[in-house]
């Protein structure tokens, strides 16, 4: 019997396992990431350059992280464990210019920016989230994973976890299946364009920062917002603000200056935090602050019915 690869890692900082991995989770029904609170285990399925893989993470009482992995890409996932859990994150020089940010930072010393190390797995759901509600995007992501992804290697496969569709699998999806998954033509074109050059886009992780984001934006259909969403997750970019987001400018505005803002206003308020503006946004999001609601929410549009 082949031994299952394992790794034990001891961080030298407070670790918020669920908080670190939360940005990678696309809703409670995400088929690629699952938290099992009773067992204290997090399961994550992903593609890697070596093939599909699953990793199970659990933290012991002394803070040690125990990881077990399965599949052709198992060792790659284990090698990337420290980066995934924020070991490469550097918040030196970060100053909280607003009381809410300062309080969030005080309460959550374990909140760091993790690095998945892979563009494709975060690019796919990011494109699906373009200009639609979260409900629509998460539904499309679930359906594409379940129909065109593969069962997660190891015991997670029996639990229903799925590895996201590979670039080749996405390029092979028939037109009518895109419609069935609720993906309109604009997002479909963007995903097909990205899938055609997916191997080149992985270099964005090495470039990092604005260079990595610029590489992603060379793909038709990938703009500032999508590139920032990928950068935040793939290489833990501390300055990649999601300009163009439907909610974030308003939330940041209400949280930091007590009024709604547009993108320009948000960037002006966040300017003192450069080059760690996204870190400030992350603290706002993690603080639990909720903006006032004065009107009806944006109604979801089901593209499957069109």
CATH architecture type of the domain at 120-234: Orthogonal Bundle
Main pleated-sheet profile: 5 strands, antiparallel
Would you tell me the structural class of the helices and strands?
alpha+beta
pLDDT averaged over residues? 93
Indicate the multimeric state. Answer: single chain
C-alpha geometry: globular
Per DSSP, the total helix count is 16
InterPro entries: Alkylbase_DNA_Glycosylase/TA (IPR051912), DNA_glycosylase (IPR011257)
Protein name: DNA-3-methyladenine glycosylase
Keywords: DNA damage, DNA repair
Topology:
Blueprint: E1 6-9, H1 17-21, E2 33-36, E3 41-46, E4 53-59, E5 65-70, H2 74-79, H3 81-84, H4 99-107, H5 120-128, H6 134-148, E6 150-151, E7 162-163, H7 167-171, H8 175-180, H9 185-196, H10 198-201, H11 203-207, H12 209-216, H13 224-234, H14 248-257, H15 263-270, H16 277-286
Helix pairs in contact: 4-16, 5-9, 5-13, 12-13, 14-15
Keywords: DNA damage, DNA repair
Protein name: DNA-3-methyladenine glycosylase
Organism: Pseudonocardia eucalypti
């Amino acid at each position: 019997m082949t031994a299952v690869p394992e790794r034990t890692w001891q961080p030298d900082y407070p670790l918020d396992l669920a908080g670190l991995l939360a940005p990678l989770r696309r809703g409670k029904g995400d088929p690629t990431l699952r938290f099992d609170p009773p067992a204290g285990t997090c399961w994550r399925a992903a593609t890697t350059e070596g093939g599909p893989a699953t990793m199970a993470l659990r933290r012991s009482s002394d803070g040690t992280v125990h990881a077990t992995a399965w599949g052709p890409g198992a060792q790659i996932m284990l090698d990337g464990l420290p980066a995934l859990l924020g070991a490469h994150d550097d918040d030196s020089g970060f100053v909280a210019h607003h009381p809410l940010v300062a309080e969030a930072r005080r309460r959550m010393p374990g909140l760091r920016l993790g690095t998945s190390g892979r563009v494709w797995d975060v690019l796919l759901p990011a494109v699906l989230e373009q200009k639609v509600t979260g409900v629509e995007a998460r539904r499309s992501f679930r359906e594409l994973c379940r129909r065109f992804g593969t069962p997660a290697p190891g015991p997670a496969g029996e639990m229903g976890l799925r590895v996201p569709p590979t670039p080749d699998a996405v390029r092979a999806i028939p037109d009518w299946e895109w419609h069935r998954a609720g993906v309109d033509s604009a997002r479909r074109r963007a995903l097909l364009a990205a899938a055609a050059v997916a191997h080149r886009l992985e270099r964005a992780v090495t470039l990092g920062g604005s260079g990595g984001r610029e590489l992603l934006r060379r793909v038709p259909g990938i703009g500032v917002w999508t590139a920032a969403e990928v950068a935040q997750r793939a290489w833990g970019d501390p300055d990649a603000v999601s300009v163009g987001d439907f909610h974030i400018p308003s939330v940041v505005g209400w949280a930091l200056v007590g009024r709604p803002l547009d993108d320009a206003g948000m960037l002006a308020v966040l300017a003192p935090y450069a080059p760690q503006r996204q870190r400030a946004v992350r603290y706002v999001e993690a603080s639990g602050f909720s903006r006032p609601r004065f009107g009806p929410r944006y109604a979801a549009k089901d593209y499957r019915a069109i």
